[in-house]
Amino acid sequence: MERLGTLWKYQEIDLLMDQHILDKKNSDSRKKLLKIRNYLVRQEENLISMDKDASQRNNLLGKLYEEYNGISGRIHTQIEKMESDEIISMEELEQLTKEGLILKDLIRRKEEELKRLSKDLDNFKKRINNIRQKVSEAKKEYIEVKKVYDAEVAAINKELAILKKQRDAVAQNIDKALMAKYKNIKASRTPVISPLTGNQCGGCFMSLASLVVQRVKDGKRIVECENCGRILYDKESIPS
Ligand SMILES: [Zn+2]
């Protein structure tokens, strides 16, 4: 059957084009690009929140320094008082000593807190820098992989353009109604034309009535599989 043979040829090119389009979608470099892009998006978000966190820690450290300086100032005032020639009472002296001990303890604790907090902040900043470094490396990698991907896509698109010309040429010999039927079936299942396998539809493997099989073999008209709707053809009748 001549027109089915032409449609078969059309389908061959059509399926080849589908495969190229799928190759583009499934390309390793495309997957890699998506992975890097997702990583970059995640890390940019991460860095924004970490920067915010770092600035909060910085503020806290600043406040702690202020407190430390305040205590240090009080100690200094006390020492000046004790070292002055001013005559003070015994009670006052005892009070000053007691206060001095408390202040000494307080400043020691603030010093520890300061040390701990600045160490934390340093580590935190190191982590941020580490991420920044990785992000910058990922950006470089993205550019490199993108080059590979773009070259792949350009090659596939070139091939697709050639195939499309071939397919369009074949399509000129297919009547509109048959082409519309092909496209209609293609919208839900592919391939559209399915070979007879014994008495089964090669697309859905449903057993066909012998009358249907005979009609397909006769090749006088277009026969669709009753189950899946594909156009059936007899391999023997179509030149390979
Ligand atoms: Zn079928």
Describe the protein in words.
- By secondary structure, this protein is mainly α.
- It has two domains: 14-171, Helix Hairpins; 176-237, no CATH class.
- The protein is 76% helix and 5% strand.
- The chain contains five helices and four strands.
- It has a four-stranded mixed beta sheet with strand order 2-1-4-3.
- Bound molecules: zinc ion (ZN).
- Zinc ion (ZN) binds at residues 201, 203-204, 206, 225, 227-228, 230.
- The site of zinc ion has 8 residues, from loops.
Looking at this protein, list some descriptive labels.
240 residues; four-stranded mixed β-sheet; binds zinc ion
Largest beta sheet: strand ordering? 2-1-4-3
* CATH fold naming of the largest domain: Helix Hairpins
Class from secondary-structure proportions = mainly alpha
Report the end-to-end length measured between terminal Cα atoms: 13 Å
CATH class of the largest domain: Mainly Alpha
